[in-house]
Amino acid sequence: MSGRPSFVVEDQSETVAFLERELGAERRIDTHGAVVFLCREHAYKLKRAVKFPYMDFSTAPRRAAMCAAEIDINRRMAPEIYLGVRPVFRRRGHLVLGEIGESGQSDSGDGAVDWLVAMRRFDEEGMLDRMAARGALTPALMAQLGARIARFHEGLPAITQGFCSPDDYRHSVAADVRQMREAGDRLDPPTSEALAEAMPRSLEPYIDLVARRVAAGAVRRCHGDLHLRNIVLLQGEPVPFDAIEFSDKIANIDVLYDLAFALMDLARQGLHALANRLLNEWLWRIAELPDASHEEALALLPMFLARRASIRAYVDSAVTAVSGADNAPARAYQKAALDFLQPVPPRLVAVGGLSGSGKTTLALKLAPDIGRTPGAVVVRSDVERKRLAGIGLEERMPAGSYTPEASARVYDAIIARAERALCAGHSVVLDAVFARDSERAAAEALAERVGVPFQGIWLDVPKDVAQERVAARRGDASDATPDVVARQFGYDLGTIHWQRRKA
Fold first, then answer.
1. Residue 136 carries which DSSP code?
2. Sequence-ordered list of residues with C-beta below 8 angstroms from that of 450, at least 6 positions apart, any chain
3. At what angle do helices 166-182 and 207-216 cross, to 10 degrees?
4. What is the structure's pLDDT at 374?
5. Nearest residue to 260 via CA among 209, 212, 217, 311
6. Pick from 359, 393, 363, 356: nearest CA to 378
7. DSSP string, 364-407
């Protein structure tokens, strides 16, 4: 086929034309790596015969292996979507479509010439990129997604060997730069050059942290391509699909880097509140890594976001080389990548008030607009209490758990967690009752010690309103009840110097 891009190594036009006739697809989707046929109840993906530095489908055996791998890997998160592999045979000079799960060897002895990933078709309007475009994404859905991704990451074994060393990071960043440059005018060359300087500079101060994250078990065989187009709402649950199957190098990554693709995608569209909600829910639920905490790893997040945007830029530019589509979206990702690397000084905000005063609601409202993308980390005493007890956020603490000694441990823990995030350059909103002068003083002292601006906010609320609010709570980390509220209103709060607001 004359005039095809250099990364296309085989003419599959006969197979594509056959499948269009045979499948009777309602619609066809072309990407840089696949042709997807959308039928009435099923979807079929034919891998393109392409060879990129990061993805190789250049031979039929390679495509066969990658189809099988795609099924196995994606069944971890989306078993309801992935059905199996379907072969395409050549018999007596004609192409014939085999059945799902059929061997690549026909009765006549002819082997398959290509393979399809067979999937159950879903309503594309449930894909999160489309929901984002029509304003249908909600904080509650982001909380669901954050919890689901955290559970997924928790179930993955740690990887301490392979493609995860500091030098691997350096080589990966260099590859990103090289591929943006190779895209030429399909991207914006001056922005490519600016990123060529900024991205390595954003990595080098944290090379030791990269090594400690590997040793601590943060690197796992993740999804690898977790942007909004690869997440769909099925029966009310967000389900990630289309995970990376073709490269351990791309998928064996830090769990925060895995999450960063979705964060980047939301932030690039201006959906900062949703990105912030996703990050915080994930942080509340992911297990601790004491030797290289997730809060400390936030120092890497600007580089992670920039890399994700850069990858989307040059991948989308490759799509335009095949389809002739507009290059503007790819260039927008480039600009976003550069924006993510701009420094923003961290801040500490503390929100206090008795149970039912609206602390968490205000903290989550403030957080997206504080500090660098995607906004401040919300450190909640209710979450920390459950974490210290080793129980789920929705489980209730055992009777007798709310002792002064236990409370002191919780406040020490939230101050320590906030300090790790602030030292990583990330802003923090503390969410706790802060009923004692000493607790409020500890928050103020943290800001002074780290050298960041501090704002304290105290929420005043009538007792009956607070009791009504806590009585109506469902599925929250807080264990407060109307009786707890009644006791709190008897506290000696001391002198409150923080800004007071009516809740």
1. -
2. 346, 348, 419, 422, 423
3. 120
4. 97
5. 311
6. 363
7. HHHGGGSSSTT--EEEEHHHHHHHHHT--TTSPPPTT---HHHH
**Considering the entire predicted model, what is its pTM?**
0.91
Runs of H (alpha helix) within 25-154 = 60-74, 128-133, 139-154
Residues across the chain = 503
**What tokens appear for 323 in the block?**
């389809």
Distance, in Å, from the CA atom of 368 to the CA atom of 247, rounded to the nearest integer, reads: 34
Q: What is the CATH number of domain 126-340?
A: 3.90.1200.10
Q: What is the DSSP letter of 288?
A: P
Q: What is the pLDDT of residues 230-264, one digit of tens each?
A: 999 999 999 999 999 998 888 999 999 999 999 99
Cα(243)–Cα(249) distance, rounded to whole angstroms?
13
Separation CA 72–CA 7 (nearest Å): 27
pLDDT tens track for 364-397: 999 999 999 999 999 999 999 999 999 999 898 8
Per-domain residue ranges for the chain? 13-121, 126-340, 348-502
The rounded radius of gyration (Å) of the Cα atoms in the chain is 26
Third-level CATH fold of 348-502 = Rossmann fold (3.40.50)
Residues 25 and 81: their CA atoms lie apart, in Å, by: 18
Q: How far apart, in Å, do the first and last CA atoms of the chain sit? A: 68
